[in-house]
Amino acid sequence: MNRSEFIKTISSATLATGLPFPIWSLKSNECSIAMFEDMAKDDDFVIRDIDTFMLRKALFISVELNNGIKGWAEAMPNDKRSSRTLIEKTLKNYFEGTNIFDVEKTWDHCIKSEYDLGPGGLLTYSLSGIDCAVYDAMGKVTQKPVYELLGGKLRDSVEIYASFTRDVYPTPDQAAAKAIALVEEGYKTLKFRMRWGLENQDPPNDNTVDFARALRKAVGPGVQLAMDANMGHTQQRAIALGKELEEFNLTWWEEPTAPYDYSAIKAIVENVNIPIVFGEHAYTVDQIKHLLTYGGSWAVNPDLLKCGGFTGGKRIGDYIAEKRVKLVAHNSRPSLSTVCMLHWVCATKMATLPQEFALREKAPGAFDCLTGFPEFKNGRLYISDRPGLGVEVDEDQVRAYDKKYTK
Ligand SMILES: [Mg+2]
Q: Which residues form a coiled coil (predicted)?
């Protein structure tokens, strides 16, 4: 009996008993499982419907099985209306009618058939939401937390770093005041995002150094401080600016140049004495491989909501374990995404660096719909052992937001 067959069998047994706890806690040998094997049908685990829900700054996804169980997650909402359309019109057709325990096969069929739409960006941003919701459903029917479906928990809690931005704190003094407040909340690592973007190369008003100086002075030497250029510089400017930033003891400097310009990345890595991080715009394991082969990165920061969910994330996790490159998990969505990410990070060998937390202010309303969000203490999130993602979604509230924000 392989792993997939075992999980299916265990799920059938759990469903058949109607017990609120897993049957294998009572009877763990195959003989006992076989007694229940015929009592629930494989058909129970087939996806009958995938739905999308618009929140103010989030796109929630539900995956409903024939047995009525629903898995929940969120898709990357950079363009949530386009993601919704892609899911509703195209991607759901690959998943509806399939067994959730065949998710890897279905995911492959989907991403390879729709390769011309991506392979990254909107395709994987949307696919991620479906994949993560499928895993939540798988966890619920097996009565297992998602991290167990990913191979098992390697850590009980994860340090999270607070990520904040020049958009909200536009002066060095405002950023410094927020940094002090975040440290008082318990964060031990902070990242400040300059948010230049590809459309704003080498901006004339570049005050990155002023921010770095103010932030370091505010938090002192004992707090880990990272900065994110958000792709804002040419190779030449990034090297010059990087040299100016060296004195502020940054833990890492993120995306100082375009993520696809591997020769520029290589030159920056070789000439700037700050750990350089790329990877949030690497959407597949092949793109991570190209980044590390032709560019370089001190650690990689793929985002589960950008790389196809748990199925894509597992492949990246396995690859970087082979290469012995660390993961500093990118996570720009604070609610359901944070929970998905936590399961992935807890089960991923090289994920020993802090996980991003984009602060609740980035997803107004999204937390109203959740109960059971992981406990935050001393700068760490503690994962629960509840089934699936371990959070409950208030569907009535989600539907009310959807009505309000669907235009
Ligand atoms: Mg970034």
A: none
CA-to-CA distance for 150 and 347, rounded, in angstroms? 6
Phi and psi (nearest 5°) for 157?
A: -145, 160
The domain made up of 149-395 has a fold known as TIM Barrel (3.20.20)
Backbone angles phi, psi at 304, to 5 degrees: -55, -35
Instruction: Kindly give the residue spans of alpha helices, DSSP state H, lying in 143-171.
Output: 146-149
List pLDDT tens digits, range 179-198: 999 999 999 999 999 999 99
pTM of the model: 0.90
- State how far the Cα of 145 lies from the Cα of 382, in Å rounded to an integer: 13
User: Could you tell me the distance, in angstroms and rounded to a whole number, from the CA of residue 180 to the centre of ligand 1?
Assistant: 21
Q: Torsion angle, CA of 213/219/225/228, rounded to 10 degrees? A: -50
Q: Which helix (H) or strand (E) holds 288?
A: helix 285-290
Q: What secondary structure letter does DSSP report for 227?
A: E
Widest CA span of the chain, in angstroms? 72
What is the Å distance from ligand 1's center to 332 Cα? 8
Task: Compute, in angstroms, the gap from residue 154 CA to the centroid of ligand 1.
Answer: 26
- Burial class, 298, CB count within 10 angstroms (exposed 0-12 / middle 13-18 / buried 19+): middle
Classified as helix, coil or strand, 240 is helix
Closest to 280 measured CA to CA, from 109, 128, 72, 390? 128
Give distance in angstroms: CA of 320 to centre of ligand 1.
19
**Whole-number Å distance between alpha carbons of 93 and 186:** 44
**Residue 366 confidence class, pLDDT cut points 50, 70, 90:** confident
Residue 308, both tokens: 């196809």
Q: What is the pLDDT of residues 63-89, one digit of tens each?
A: 999 999 999 999 999 999 999 999 999
Q: Nearest-CA neighbor of 348 among 133, 146, 141?
A: 146
